[in-house]
Amino acid sequence: MRPLVLAVGKPRICAQEIEGYARRLRVAGLGLGFVRKKEELFTRSQGMRRVVLDERGRLFTTLGLARFLKGWEGERVAFLVADADGFGEEDRERADLLLSLSPLTLQHELALLVLLEQLYRIHTLWAGHPYHR
Q1: Average pLDDT, stretch 86-106?
Q2: Alpha-carbon distance 132 to 50, whole Å?
Q3: Checking CA distances to 9, which of 31, 52, 66, 85 falls within 20 to 30 Å?
Q4: What is the pTM (predicted TM-score) of this model?
Q5: Which residue in 36, 1, 34, 4 sits closest to 116, CA to CA?
Q6: Residue 1: what pLDDT?
Q7: What number is the average pLDDT over the span 16-20?
Q8: Which residues contact 10 (CB under 8 A, 6 or more apart)?
Q9: Which residues of 8-47 are buried (b: 16+ CB within 10 A; e: fewer)?
Q10: Half-sphere exposure of residue 97: CA atoms within 13 angstroms, side-chain side
Q11: Strand pairing class (49-59; 2-8)
Q12: Which three-class secondary structure state does DSSP give residue 89?
């Protein structure tokens, strides 16, 4: 899996932590981009598997998500993070996977940070690194 994470707006509250995980994930080929409008998420992710973060989405354990994503090995996968308004029904229908990070509603920048941490954890799990215990 070759991940691309796209988010609406530049982070402010978790910017340093987000950049830290993005830096760690670049060695795994992660791309991280910020767009101004939600529609740009879908334009930039054209031709890729799309994982849309949404509170109505599927909940996974870390190991469960790692197993699921392993099925997309070798494919480009875009993880899409909306702004505070979230995604509409039409947006959700364009997803290959609706992913919920928690049954709680998370502020969008915090959701981005949690997503990056989980992608890093999954990467280290696949690499046999002790980060994931």
Answers
A1: 96
A2: 25
A3: 66
A4: 0.94
A5: 4
A6: 81
A7: 95
A8: 34
A9: bbebeebeebbeebbebbeebebebeebeebeebbeebee
A10: 19
A11: unpaired
A12: helix
